[in-house]
Design brief:
- With 315 residues, this protein is mainly α.
- It has ten helices and no strands.
């Protein structure tokens, strides 16, 4: 059941390495800081994503399949705030207080929930970029092919895949664990980059085509309006994806270093890995702000929800 470490001493498990005073000597200050920061991020992720889920429930103008993907992402972010981050705090607290019996359980629980939820977030964000590409390429056939039922199956598949993979981490050594993180993050980021590159190249091609076939005195109103609305939706999704890249890429850099260095999983790599993991958790608190800032319909629904809450509390 134990994860193995790939340092010079292969006999040590991950729990033994990450829950021993010998390895974790002198890191109490950093872990206390991480605990305090993640308590704050846990609260903001919970409150922010709860508001977003309520707003998405009220919002009716967004396409149902696209709304489902945003809702799935918000649920994953909400779960990060109520499971992964509290478990991370519990692990770091157990290390500071030298409660090694608790440490063994919390690090495994933290690894399972963090891996599952971050996997769902990555896959869903990638699906949003592919969804925007399909909306452009399929045109009128988009609503016929990208149905709510098919999107539900895909969203369920993300959860199932992430849970199955994360539940097997207890029998993997840390080399395979880091390789999984590295490959998973890299594939999602490459797929997303391809989707948005294809989108902007297609938009550019369509713009040139429209300019060549429609004179300024006889503008076609439907195409510019549809393209303008679609472009706005793409930029909103791109902001969400860009923030995810900023939050996830540093962790992949740390994974790459840990996989390629000959020095093994040293204490400095351990601290860097946990700080970059906190940056990943930060993404769950930033997404609600991006929804409110870039998606007008969600922003209006959030304002209405807050207005109702404050009105009820003042009565």
């Amino acid at each position: 059941m134990a994860l193995k470490n790939f340092t010079e001493d292969d006999s040590k498990t991950l729990e033994e390495l990450f829950c021993t005073a010998e390895f974790l000597r002198g890191v109490d200050g950093e872990l206390i800081f991480l605990s305090a920061l993640n308590i704050f991020l846990s609260i903001t992720a919970f409150l922010g994503n709860t508001l977003i889920l309520v707003a998405l429930h009220k919002e009716t103008s967004l396409h149902t399949s696209s709304k489902l993907l945003y809702r799935n992402l918000a649920i994953a972010d909400l779960c990060v705030g109520i499971t992964a981050e509290p478990l991370a705090v519990a692990y770091w607290t157990s290390v500071v207080n030298k409660r090694w019996n608790i440490c063994h359980y919390t690090i495994l629980a933290m690894g399972f929930f963090a891996s599952t939820l971050c996997g769902v977030s990555l896959l869903t964000s990638t699906a949003i970029s592919v969804d925007r590409l399909l909306a452009l390429l399929l045109g009128l056939r988009y609503r016929q092919l990208v149905t709510l039922r098919r999107t539900c199956i895909i969203a369920f598949g993300f959860w199932f895949l992430s849970i199955v993979v994360s539940s097997t981490l207890t029998v993997w050594n840390i080399l395979i664990l880091l390789s999984y993180n590295y490959i998973g993050i890299a594939l999602c980021l490459v797929t997303t980059a391809f989707a948005y590159t294809k989108i902007f190249c297609t938009l550019r091609h369509n713009q040139i085509h429209v300019q060549n076939h429609f004179s300024p005195r006889q503008p076609n109103q439907e195409i510019p309006l549809n393209i303008a609305r679609y472009r706005k939706a793409v930029y909103s999704a791109l902001w969400v994806q860009g923030t995810l890249v900023v939050c996830y890429l540093p962790l992949n850099i740390v994974n790459t270093y840990a996989l390629t260095t000959q020095r093994g999983f040293s204490l400095s790599v351990y601290l860097a890995w946990h700080f970059m993991s906190t940056l990943v958790f930060l993404n769950s608190s930033l997404n609600p702000l991006l929804y409110c800032w870039k998606i007008r319909e969600v922003r209006q629904a959030v304002k209405e929800t807050l207005r109702q809450i404050f009105c009820c509390s003042s009565q």
